[in-house]
UniProtKB/TrEMBL annotation:
<keyword id="KW-0804">Transcription</keyword>
<dbReference type="Pfam" id="PF10069">
    <property type="entry name" value="DICT"/>
</dbReference>
<dbReference type="Pfam" id="PF13411">
    <property type="entry name" value="MerR_1"/>
</dbReference>
<dbReference type="GO" id="GO:0003677">
    <property type="term" value="F:DNA binding"/>
</dbReference>
<keyword id="KW-0805">Transcription regulation</keyword>
<dbReference type="GO" id="GO:0003700">
    <property type="term" value="F:DNA-binding transcription factor activity"/>
</dbReference>
<dbReference type="InterPro" id="IPR047057">
    <property type="entry name" value="MerR_fam"/>
</dbReference>
<feature type="domain" description="HTH merR-type">
    <location>
        <begin position="52"/>
        <end position="121"/>
    </location>
</feature>
<protein>
    <submittedName>
        <fullName>MerR family transcriptional regulator</fullName>
    </submittedName>
</protein>
<dbReference type="InterPro" id="IPR000551">
    <property type="entry name" value="MerR-type_HTH_dom"/>
</dbReference>
<dbReference type="InterPro" id="IPR009061">
    <property type="entry name" value="DNA-bd_dom_put_sf"/>
</dbReference>
<keyword id="KW-0678">Repressor</keyword>
<dbReference type="InterPro" id="IPR019278">
    <property type="entry name" value="DICT_dom"/>
</dbReference>
<keyword id="KW-0238">DNA-binding</keyword>
Length: 327
């Protein structure tokens, strides 16, 4: 193979002689150029291939049978596959962790539809909700479905325990709508007087704030709008309740609405919940929440967190509230 070009011979005076002569490129140089180009193409192809999985490879990596993955895709459009020109499925490597998350949520008792929704929500955007992140980061924490009436009872029990303990911690509450917070405003104003910081979250609307209580307004599409959350983080009392409203309940009476919920006294899980709340508040421009992330909530939590009788007292308080609500 010969490459040639017409070269002008330039004399020292700077003018061209007008003479041309063919230039032959050595075969060895051409071979080296083509070899490097071929290697570059193959390396790029290899990198692209490694980023995509066949359904068999996804099944092997996650422990979920290929037939099950096909059934999930048909019913829930998950995991979402790209198709090759010949129609074969190819999955992004990131789908491995999402499928694993769905498996863990299913093992915790969630229905497949809800598990898929939670896993995808946690992966498609920065953490902006407490429940899905706590479930993902702390799979040992058990989840359960609670009606809103039971959820209210447990929330009030936590608030009572915070007030009775005298602990001065960092308090967070998510109420979905500000009208829900209105009925709890007096209790939360009282809690805010002794707390080191207090932040409450709800869908954008009118609510009075104060030096002790910070109101964080959420956008309609914010994941936290679907949540019901109470978090108290202090060395003396670490407790968190996070619940995620199940979809498709618009026709139910308010107190019959059902939430997937998790509550915990584990200081590490509580600290994660507090950080997630503070992160959402900081993202909405709350400078005090930003300071918390860099200060009080930045380190590891106290290993104690709560006294041995705290769980018993919480259960007793919650039961009393729920029984009173059913009368």
């Amino acid at each position: 193979m010969v490459l040639s070009s017409r070269l002008l011979v330039v004399r020292p005076g700077g003018r061209s002689s007008g003479a041309v002569r063919p230039h032959r490129c050595p075969t060895s140089l051409i071979f080296n150029i083509l070899s490097r180009l071929y290697s570059s193409i193959m390396d790029a192809s290899s990198r692209i291939a490694q980023e995509w999985l066949t359904i068999g490879e996804l099944a092997e990596a996650t422990g979920v049978a290929a037939a099950t993955l096909r059934a999930w895709e048909a019913r829930h459009d998950f995991p979402r596959a790209q198709r090759t020109p010949r129609g074969h499925r190819r999955y992004a490597r990131a789908e491995i962790e999402v499928v694993r998350d769905v498996v863990r949520l299913r093992e915790d008792g969630l229905q497949l539809e809800n598990a898929v929704a939670l896993a995808q929500e946690a992966r498609t955007q920065p953490p902006a909700a407490v429940y899905p992140e706590i479930v993902r980061r702390h799979p040992a924490e058990r989840t359960q479905q609670l009606r809103k009436l039971s959820l209210l009872g447990l929330s009030w029990a936590i608030e009572d325990e915070v007030a009775a303990s005298g602990a001065q911690g960092h308090l967070f509450g998510a109420f979905q709508q500000w009208r829900n917070f209105a009925s709890a405003r007096a209790r939360w104003d009282e809690l805010a007087r002794t707390a080191r910081s207090t932040h409450v979250f709800a869908l954008d609307g009118e609510v009075a704030t104060s030096d002790a209580l910070h109101a964080v307004h959420l956008e309609p599409d914010a994941p936290m709008v679907r949540e019901w959350t109470v978090v108290h983080d202090s060395p003396e009392l670490a407790v968190a309740l996070a619940a995620w409203e199940l979809p498709g309940q618009s026709g139910l009476p308010d107190r019959e609405r059902v939430f997937e919920s998790v509550w915990t006294l584990d200081p590490a899980a509580v600290r994660d919940a507090a950080r997630l709340c503070a992160s959402v508040a900081a993202g909405r421009g709350d400078t005090d929440a930003r300071d918390l992330l860099q200060g009080a909530l930045a380190g590891s939590p106290s290993p104690s967190g709560a006294s041995p009788g705290t769980a018993t007292r919480l259960a007793q308080r919650a039961l009393a509230y729920v029984e009173a609500g059913h009368r």
